[in-house]
Amino acid sequence: MKNLQKVTIIGLGYVGFPLACAIAKNNNYEVYGLDTNKERVDKINMRISPVEDRQAEKDIKEVIIYATTEEEVLKKSKFIIVCVPTPIDEERRPDLTPVIQAAESISRNLQKGQIIILESTVNPGVCEETILPILERGNFRGGIDFELIHCPERIDPGNPNWNVYNINRNIGGLTKQGTHIAANFYRSFLKGDINEMSSLKVAESTKIVENAFRDVNIAYVNELAQSFDKLGIDVYEVINGASNKPFAFMPHYPGCGVGGHCIAVDPYYLIEYAAKNGFDHQLLKVARSVNNSMPHYTVQKLVDGLESIGVNIKGAKIGLLGLSYKANIGDMRESPALEIKKELEDLGAIVLCCDPYCNGHAPALINEILENCIGLILATNHHQFMEVKNWKNVKIIVDGRNCLDMPNIESQGIIYEGIGRGFPNTPNGKIVNEI
């Protein structure tokens, strides 16, 4: 019988589960999954995907993953990959608790020769300053008795073109040899390029830089949208015009806020770590402030629109289309729609939520909203919402994703407000603001 190398993935969510499936498709590995959520573990053992991911939903039917809540499984494994969340707390400070708990589990079961890989997104320094001391509590030493590697996850839920298999990856470790071993491991089951980097800190920095780059650019166009609303300029037409330059411009689009577990979270990790080391990331903090302000800006557009027709937001029935943070999936992590909903309710509005992907969190039907609500905010550009042609009894629509057919809406006598493009002569085009 073939001697399979054992691999354990800690954390079987949006990152860990698709990765586990990808590894299990290579017949050289026996794959285990460790998670504290027993319901998730049971689903996987019944070959049911615990996350919304088309590729993973298909893969789990073709592979076997041995899921468990018992950490002793770590002792058997050559490779241990940590894919736990790295959230922020209510004060928007990084919370490394899940990573620390995973490291402690590994430390209790650490064996000589193991390859420990962190995929969770962290700031530079976490591997060497936080994880390594935990792993070295016993007699083993990193880079000698075991290897510590960082390979920051790259995944885009709901994207039909990019998945765990074909996205390029960066890998850095304590030693050059360890980095190379881990890189070859990833090459054995992924199709994307595997880039070997010079250090753990460099690898840690790549993911933070990628997402901070997007956050800053989205903040830029969100600020432009607010400015151009005052100036009477359609920011969307401006961005499309600037996009025909064949170099040195990358279009980003405004919207009602930034969501998801990466862009809305990761910059805080770099802000916090840099501050502890004597540097103030002013630009990143301003970008976060601008993007965090967009749900309020969106709600205020609705309030102003209602007042223009003599309606007070208090007691008004308002429809909210979409609760997830991006189109055509049910992931509500850090979704700006949740902030919009809370602010509407705080203002005294009666909020009816519709989201066909969010399993009971938004039970209202679209027709119920169109027949009973005087105003609505579109917060998520699900394809079902963009197919609506007759807006019935709605008097004002705030299009938080700039994706609706404005001429059609205005032809029905309805007030249309986009984010930076509420003007009658604006051409309706394709929107690419899936943040």
Structural account:
By secondary structure, this protein is of the alpha/beta class. It folds into two domains: 5-198, NAD(P)-binding Rossmann-like Domain (Rossmann fold); 223-418, Rossmann fold (3-Layer(aba) Sandwich), CATH 3.40.50.720. 37% of the residues lie in helices and 13% in strands. It is built from 15 helices and 13 strands. It has helices at 16-24, 38-45, 54-59, 97-109, 126-135, 176-187, 200-231, 235-242, 266-276, 282-292, 294-308, 336-346, 366-372, 383-386, 406-411, and strands spanning 5-10, 29-34, 66-68, 79-82, 115-118, 147-150, 169-173, 194-196, 317-321, 350-354, 375-378, 396-399, 415-418. The protein has an eight-stranded mixed beta sheet with strand order 3-2-1-4-5-6-7-8, sandwiched between helices. α12 links the parallel β9 and β10. α4 runs parallel beside α5. The longest helix is centred in the middle third of the chain and has 32 residues, at 200-231. The chain is elongated.
* Terminal CA distance: 47 Å
CATH architecture of the largest domain: 3-Layer(aba) Sandwich
Structural domains: how many: 2
SS elements, strand count: 13
Beta-strand percentage range:
5-15%
Task: Tally the helices.
Answer: 15
Instruction: Please state the overall shape, judged from the principal axes of the Cα atoms.
Output: elongated
- The CATH topology of the largest domain turns out to be Rossmann fold
